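User: Fold this, then the next.

Assistant: Folding the first:
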Amino acid sequence: MAEVDRGLDRRKFLKVLGVTGVGSAALGGCSTDKVEKLIPYLVQDPNQVPGKATIYASTCTECSAGCGLHVTTREARAIKLEGNPDHPVNRGALCARGQAALQGLYNPDRIAGPMARNEAGDWVKVTWDDAIGRLVRALLAAPGRLAVLSGAGAGTFSDLFRDWTEAQGGQFVRWEPFDHEAMRAANRRIFGLDELPAHDFARARHIVSFGAEFLETWLAPVENQRGFAEARGRVGEGQEGERGMAKAVYIGPRRSLTGLNADEWHATTPGSEALLALAMANVVLSERSGAPPDANALRGVLSEYTPQRAAEAAGLETETVLRLAREFASAQPSLAVAGGISAQHRGAVDVCAAVNLLNYVAGNVGETVLFGARLQAGDGYGALRTLQQSMTASQVGVLIVHEANPVYAVPAESGFAAAMAQVPFKVSTSAYLDETSAACDLLLPNHHALERWDDAKPRAGIHALLQPVMEPVFGTKPTGDVLLETARLVGGALGGFSAVNFEAHLKDAWASVAQAAGASDTVEFWRESLRRGGRFATPEPTVVGLAAGVRLQLTEPALDGDGEFTLLPYPSPMLFDGRGANRPWLRENPDPVSKITWHSWVEVHPDTAARLDVRDGEHLRLTSPHGALEVPVYVYAGVRRDVIALPLGLGHTEFGAYATGEGVNPLDLLSADDGSGFLPYLSTRVEVERTRGFTKLATTQGNPRQLGRGIVETMPLPLAERGLTVAQSYEEQGHAEHEINPELEREAIVGWAEVQQEKQRFGGYADPHPKWGMAVDLSRCTGCSACVTACYAENNIPWVGADEVRRGREMSWMRIERYWEDGAHDGGASHAESAEARFIPVMCQHCDNAPCEPVCPVYASYHTPDGLNGQVYNRCVGTRYCGNNCPYKVRYYNWFAFAKRAFPEPMSLQLNPEVTVRARGVMEKCTFCIQRIRSAQHTARLEGREVQDGDVVTACAQACPSGAIVFGNVRDPESRVAAARQHPRGYHLLEDLNVRPSVTYLAKVIHSVEA
């Protein structure tokens, strides 16, 4: 990879001396023959004002949810992605994967232009005319033998691609690895509807997940997380006799991030979920009135699924099953969800069908389960297998793979690569040389989603637009243009595709949309839609009833092999199905559960680890009937003793320098058998063997326990509803206040505080400045880590790699701490199944009595009149005294020139020009996004007004899907942050140190097990 330019040295300076003007640029080398002309903006682009950001509306394509984007550009380059507040799915928030889409745009491993294999089998660069000519000749030579495998979502492009394929008599398959086919099959079985519904978590008073990771990868995680946070944030808002804050229960063999945010986790036997859901439905229907009339026909069907039978199968107590059912029925409306990838065994359709019945008898369908939204879905794994059979039978002459990587994303045992080898001519439009592209004959790299025109229909009522926000970084070409140009050259049946390019085709399609909407001016309709990011409407709900002849046929899901342990592959919240493995921001953002970065691991229960005599980092060899892998151990009590779990997303053999050869792919251990239209990920038993290998885990976890320091405070729901403070809550529960300072020290602290408050009245600090502060509601924070990636993107933070993480040298300005509490195991709370997980975002606290400031010998660390702990980078000499004196450990030393490696060309284009790229040897830290503060202040000054609450939104607060972070002026009594600081649940980290932080945390509210 190329290294980042070291900047303007003396030789370059002399070359450009005397050249001035806005927009000047030095394109240099070392010899005079490489000097290029420096041309300022002679004719100013009206859409680009130097020094001022331009924002475009677009749509995220990192998963099928289709969240709306606002793309911030500076000097015609995209530098930051935010959520579109007008978009109904994400409403202004954005997950970590969405934030990291910039690293897909500027990735140095993107294919720079069309390439073809020569006779020796090597890749050679070709022109676009040559490349399209090769495709045309191949299509003409194989009439009626075309096949297309597309991973693109629903929209005008997919419609064009399907029509283009079918016009040639070809086969078109739209496929995504995580497509929730089991849910669709269950909806067909129970309701007669072939669609995926939306789910209103915000309205739910009780939430039960049967293995659905709705905070990570299930359907629309940003929307789910916002709704979940709203449901959990209703502390004290319930009417008399009803519950305000929703209770959450997670049922499954592994405790995922969703499970860690639940009030209860029940580690049930894999395959028992359907019985448990039906037993709960039986109890609800027999003990509660108000079920839909046609639900009464289910009484006889459900009667055989008793709580005793379900408890025996799941490994629970009968009383527990009864309690779960009664709590679910009593809190209305409630919500049960299923269909998670990690719980997708061969009986997944039965589980989803059982959960459908549970929701139906509880009256949730139409309340929290909303049909009519018709979330987009592909053709399913079964269609992919059918396509593979056609290739194996030599029925395909030309294969085009678009935005899909099946060679990686399906088990190796499937033989998909061998089936591709039977196709004479294979074409990939991937922007990267991934496993599937590497098996092709011709590469036609598509524009990135931020470089091309397109639209998306992720669900009913949403017709979103994509637009090019900058010039293409590489010599790529939109696939839509390739299809239309090919159609003109092939002619015949393709003669009807006459648009000049895909942009024109898209505008023609939207003219029809405008006419259907009754717009008189189609041009203005297009412009307004482009400005908003699309057209958004609330779809009419579909009235749902039970399908005729509903029947239940539960079969115990079979597992391959005779191994001792059940293998549970689960989707990574960062890497998704593997498409994020080449993004360093995602690789270095710690897994929310294990806090491990960069590499693979296998999760083993502490009792199992003790029996196998393995510890963290020691290698285990996993062997199934389909393959074998060796991977380091992470001891985790959040899995059953008879289960071992591995994250999906790594183990690429091709995908660029950041991903190739990193980690293992759990799919290598799985069978490729079709599980009735879907891939059963939970389908294999493995043998486990201890090896002599060892890998030090690249983890950011410190001490997993709080050791009584009260870092993440909690309080029971009844006490929080009474408005008690944290101290009063402890007193109410009979816990004495924990004092870490003796009496003399406490007297000194009080005296010190009085002196500091008196000093603050003098000098510039006495002027009416704002005082900036932050509040974090821990009842809303789920630990998803979207804020961490947003901070990386906003503040030009370099990634450091696995080796430096192992040395404790990660540079993230904010981190999500995960602590275990109340564990009863000798190994500590992190090794106890009953342990409660507590998450807390930690950044610079901007203390009023900041201990980092007086110890700096060069005054690099100082306090601003508006309450910020400032850091002058070019004054810092790297003594690290401030870091040693910081009790929160939120100051990071730049040991090496990390930026040179982290921002190779063209990744340097993503750098935010408002933030200094720090040189080596300085201390870095959170600045409360001071560049955003000053920008808002300048804007307010130009408009002749004061800064209003909400004018300044930090990157972490803007990205947070759950709305847990609030920022503003604490001296404004009307501001949200001032109200949060006065909240009874408010407290400060390590408050006894008297450093007076500017960050207020609101204690997490927890349900009791029995509520």
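Now the next one, as you asked:
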Amino acid sequence: MNNRTTTESKWTQPIEWGVLLLMVAAAAALRYWHLEDIPPGFNSDEAVGAMGALKTLREGIQYSYEGQGGGGALGFYFAAASFYLFGPSIAAIRGVAAWAGVMSVFTNYWAVREIFRNQGLVRARWIAGLSTLGLTFSVWHIWASRVAFATIGVPLLMLPSVFFLWWGLNHPRQKWAFVASGIFLAAGMYIYLSGVFAPPLYAAFFISQWLLIFAAKKLKQTPNPPSAYLTSQFWNLFITAMVALLLLLPVAYVLLFNPSLEPGGTRVSQAIFTNPQINHGDPWGLLWRSFTGNFSAYGVSLLWLTGQVPRLSFMPPAIGALVFAGFLIALVQSLRGQAAYLFIWLWYGILLLPSILSPDSIPHNLRTIGATTPTYVFAAITVVSVADLLWRMARRGLAPRLGLRRTTWLARAAGLLIGLWLGWQFWQVNQPFLYDYFFVYPQTNDAQAAFHVYAVEMAKEINREPDPGANFILLRNTAAGETHPNFTTDFLTELAQPPAAHTWVEDDERTLPAALTAAAATHDVLRVVYWRTSKHTGADPKEAIPYYLEKYGYRDHKHGFKYFDIVTYQLQTPSPDFSANETLSPVKIDFGGQFKLTGFAFGDAGNVDAVTQPQARSFDLLWLRVRGQKTADHPENLKITALIYTEAGELVTRVDKPLLNNILQQPSSQWEVGAETDAYFLIPIPEGTPPGKYNLRVAVYGEDSQARLPVVSVVPEMPVSENAVILSDFTVLLSTKHAKLEHMTMAFPVGRELLPGLTLAGFETLPGTSVRSGQKVGASLLWQSSGDTPPAQDAEMSLAAKPVGGGTEWAISQPLPLVSKYYPSSQWETGKLMRGWLTTRIPPEMEPGRYQLDLRLTDAHVPETELARLPVGEFEITGWTRNFTAPQPQQPVGADFGGLATLLGVDADTAALSPGGTFNVTLHWRADAEFDRDYKAFVQIIGPEGQLFGQVDQTPGAGQFPTSGWLPGEYIADSYAVPLDPATPPGEYGLLIGLYYPDTGQRLPVSGGNCGPDACLLPGITVK
């Protein structure tokens, strides 16, 4: 750009001011338009400032505020002033940020103009104007100006400090400029942590300039200015430093005598790259990635030299290329001793350090906001340098022929056209970014989440609450990290007078009862908020809150919203103490050596007056709390299940819970051995469950394998059934509510009155259309007392089956009470639905074929008297051809398996095996008694030292001959093909054979035939 020292036209300054004011007006429009709605919602960090501003108005200025983090107290004072003038609102506090952004655009021009003044006023104006134009339309700067974060205060205060500093450097006798620079320099350190990097910038600049001046003189170059500021204006710089230090004495005092008041220290320790939670064990690698990532994000990347475009942040590629070129030009000019370029170059690098050193996000566009000015100055330097080059070429090529005057006017016209073209190009490349920010981004899920729209909507819902007795429980998830209250909701509810009650509650099990007790002290309606959109989604995964609230109240209803669900609980006792009645009965129950149950407590969750009693009502809840400890490492995560059984062994219901620890909510495989945890259960007693005696059981199983851990040890009064410990008996009471048929799912609706006043509503479950001989089958029935009085007779029920083509009828179950021996049908309340269970086992001796299934009702007191019969339908019994001829096995064994079966012998492949081959063997069994369950057989190839080299586990006959279908005296040929490990060395091996129950892993005892205690080991396998 032409640097001729000519007398300025009288229009120069009006044009300069006019252009600047146009840019400021554009900046204001872009920063204030729909300010309350874009971005959507109101971020919690913004609300921290809003709450601090309210506190300032009420209590006076503070040094630090709750939730302050990396922001300084000065931002709260600005917000308080806005609230005082305009009233508290989102627009009022964001308006402060927008004002700061507009003022930054204005002061940017004068600061850059003053920095480059010694390069010539024309050049200074062009660089200042172009960089300010870039800042005006920069989405980076616009974004920071439209959110109430203190970070925008860094350019707001730093730019005046820079302006006054360079004004003083260019006018050394005006000492007031250095005083003003020091005031703004100190103020910047009270606004945001990034402001702390301004003093190092000043120090680095003056020291570097002194060194470069020294080097330039040695190299006989002409630096600008010719002398170092550090020597020529030392006392002026000393004034700036002393003023800043004087104003920073409060910070020094706090750091020395009360460092806990300084929130910035905590924030630095959290975000610094040395924090293991951020660097994951690679601090220096992360620092390098952060260094290159931050520079690349703002245009400075070596990728440009390879023809690639780096990943830019809020910046179109064309601008990024200009920035990179300007960065290189500034570097070259800096090394030549050009102070203005050196200052901009250092400004860029040092003001990126807050993001580089705190790499939780690369880049962090708020922490780098102080580098906006040098970034766009680099782009302006490139444009001006190209214009200078063109002007010099024009002077050499055109001036000798056209004359200097004509060449100058031609250059001005060309410059105007080029400027208009560049402006249009600038708008073209920047317009998509602006459109995306204002019209696309606000509608995205990212924007909705980042600016906590869910918290704004939550505040609206709280402010609409009409019930003064209601309190909203706003959950915080400890596994999400920081669990501070969401200040957005706090601020917006604070604006409602009087504010509705809401309480922030962490799902920390240690503090949860006390927090709920405090929340319910003066409220009898608790509305628990479960977030759908928040980092606290998934709070209370152990469901401890419903566990507590159901014990002293009941769940009334649930309302679903876009961003959250609200579950309302009505408390039934005033001011409950949720920590009461939580004393656990100590036990020592070992599950597979991996987990130990150490305590439990349970009671009635439907009656606050009987909360500790071993009872529950039908159609209500039983509460259970168990505590356990990890006793050994295990590869898969464990789950715990609570089961309710009838006295006859019918499963009524079950509830499964993953074993999670507190705070981190990790599954059990990730715990340290010895870690303890609690599990909280609300076990629903199904509708229609009859009154009577039931038992409560607990089992632990693998999440992936679904296999229960065996119970290793248990006290005698706690029997074990199928690896589930029976913790206690309890009583189910008659429901005070009527079960409704529409709530029931039935496999076979009936709706028929079988006896006067007795209606069979239907079968919830049926055995199925095809069952196997020996298989256990069950049916669940729903009965209803349908008359004005209960049935006159006590009836019992049973199942009978008869071949479809005719033949002998089989009584396949014994007569049982319709629902419970404790509640005979003559005592039923009219209109009540009752559930009954009928479980039996298809006799193995029943021949395969189709049968008609009937439900029989008989007199409980005269069993031979049939009262009613109902055809249920046809079903098929499947089986296999029975063999009662004894085999002649090649290798006799004669081992007895628990009195249920005998392994008569085996037929084995006698040829020597090769590694990787298959060993074929047939086991010959004789059934000695009926099995009540299905066992699996295992066949293993065992080395001389007990090593396992091959194994097959299967239901006998590859699933065709399950043990529950074996008939006493029947012979079963059971074949296996056992693959041999390819790494098996040559030698002699044995064959290990046994039977086990797959649900528990328990083997049948073995005796005789030189076998025992729970398997047979047969020699005779040779591997070549």
